[in-house]
From TrEMBL:
HAMAP family: D_Ser_dehydrat. The keyword Lyase applies. One of its GO terms (biological process) is isoleucine biosynthetic process. Its EC number is 4.3.1.18. The gene is dsdA. This is Probable D-serine dehydratase. Belongs to the serine/threonine dehydratase family. DsdA subfamily. GO terms for molecular function: D-serine ammonia-lyase activity; hydro-lyase activity; pyridoxal phosphate binding. It comes from Pseudobacillus wudalianchiensis.
Length: 443
């Protein structure tokens, strides 16, 4: 992007100046006020179909991943009310937070330890199912635990899978691919943590490392995969299957809401806050929630100050034609799961009419919340997973809450913060991050 174009963008969108200066910002999407047309790219039927597919695979998953035995192979996370964190924010901001504050604990999702278990596992399983059915080795009426047999592993070993990742998607796809017997290659960006690569190599997954950012790792992976026979590339930037996998979270949440007596209706709006990298996970989940709960759902995405790609893409309408580096943001963040410089245009266009806003959070703030969450709620999250937790405060302080919801709606609201990763972080690393947060909080 040339200087002239950049200057005119900055004149049109003064928020860019603050973003460049490293400030935390909140962008409200004015378009949602006049949104009439439904552009959500998936239907409720498709979400239900995806959920049914995951249920068909449950007996297989329970066989190959012993940690999922207790839930019969259903990969799901708990829902918690986090009243201590709510009080923390109320004290910090000297203001009462109306409604209730919940945490959807995807950091506890088994196998992958992150939200990527939803999309990544789903796309690999769907691909495996298609291959097996096409080759007359499986029918949807059968018990899928047969996929764990030596014969089936030998069949899948003739095929390869590839993906580009900052760490967690690679972990999800690598673990699932290896469990089925696929030859799996993960192209890791420079952000990927050492332990994630080690974990994959221990499972026989090929990990190729790049000195460069996520977009480059994806590009290289895509090119190499295209040259490899029988190779399937999982495309985080464009995949509808990943998106669908993520969206199934909405059906599961509906069940959990029912069990916990949490109502979503005109008097009880649901406001969800989702950490965003390239956009697939938050986009899929938000779209799923819109399909399941309808107009009473509101949503915000959260990004690091150093990686506000979706905010830039949505605000300017340029989607993947703009990267944070274009405006001089260097993409230096400890929130590796969100270290993406260019957003998915597929996701940006999908949510452009419905998403209520995007806000950014500094790395220091992420570490402070990481420490508070561990101390007050006993939940250990990785930095990326804390991007959304300040959402209710942002919604309030930006004026969005008061202008979009009546007083009784604000009182009846459920604020749902999505936690996206952390349970597989090695103990020593978690300890160091908690200490870092403690120091920052004391300052
Ligand atoms: C990948 C990831 C996200 C965001 O998902 P995208 O699909 O990249 O937007 C959020 N949190 C964590 C921990 C992640 O690994």
């Amino acid at each position: 992007m040339n200087d002239e174009k950049l200057n005119s963008l900055e004149t049109q969108w003064p928020l860019i100046t603050e973003m460049k200066a490293g400030e935390e910002v909140t962008w409200l999407n004015e378009r949602t006020l006049k949104a009439e047309t439904d552009q959500l790219p998936i239907t409720l039927e498709e979400i239900e179909e995806a959920d049914a597919r995951l249920r068909r695979f449950a007996p297989f998953l329970a066989t190959v991943f012993p940690e999922t035995k207790a839930t019969d192979g259903i990969i799901e996370s708990p829902l918690f009310e986090i009243a201590h964190m709510k009080r923390f924010f109320e004290k910090q901001h000297n203001e009462k937070m109306e409604g209730r504050l919940y945490l959807k604990a995807d950091h506890l999702l088994p196998v992958a330890g992150s939200v990527k278990a939803r999309g990544g596992m789903y796309e690999v399983l769907k691909h495996a199912e298609s291959l097996a059915i096409e080759n007359d080795l499986l029918s949807t009426e059968e018990d899928y635990s047969k996929l764990a047999s030596d014969e089936m592993r030998a069949f899948f070993s003739r095929y390869s899978l590839a993906v580009g990742s900052t760490g967690n998607l690679g972990l999800s796809i690598g673990m699932t691919g290896a469990a089925l017997g696929f030859q799996t290659t993960v192209h890791m960006s420079a952000d990927a943590k050492e332990w994630k690569k080690r974990r994959l190599r221990d499972r026989g997954v090929t990990v190729i490392e790049y000195e460069d950012d996520y977009s480059r790792a994806v590009e290289e992976g895509r090119v190499l995969s295209a040259k490899t026979e029988n190779s399937f590339f999982i495309d985080d930037e464009h995949s509808k299957e990943l998106f669908l996998g993520y969206s199934t979270a909405a059906l599961r949440l509906q069940e959990q809401f029912r069990e916990n007596g949490i109502i979503v209706d005109a008097d009880h709006p649901l406001i969800v806050y989702l950490p965003c990298g390239v956009g697939g996970a938050p986009g899929g989940i938000f779209t799923g929630l819109k399909r399941v709960f309808g107009e009473h759902v509101y949503g915000f995405f959260a990004e690091p100050v150093q990686a506000p790609c979706m905010l830039l893409g949505l605000m300017t309408g340029l989607h993947d034609e703009i990267a944070v580096q274009d405006v001089g943001i260097e993409l230096r963040t400890e929130a590796d799961g969100l270290a993406v410089g260019r957003p998915s245009s597929f996701v940006g266009k999908a949510v452009a009419n419905d998403l209520d806003g995007v806000f950014t959070v500094s790395d220091d703030t992420l570490f402070i919340y990481l420490q508070q969450m561990a101390a007050l709620e006993g939940e250990k999250l990785e930095p990326s997973a804390l991007a959304g937790i300040e959402g209710p405060i942002r919604a309030k302080e930006s004026g969005w809450l008061d202008s979009h919801l009546t007083e009784s709606q604000r009182k009846g609201a459920a604020h749902l913060v999505w936690s996206t990763g952390g349970s597989l972080v090695p103990e020593e690393e978690m300890k160091a991050m908690i200490e870092k947060g403690e120091h920052l909080y004391a300052e």
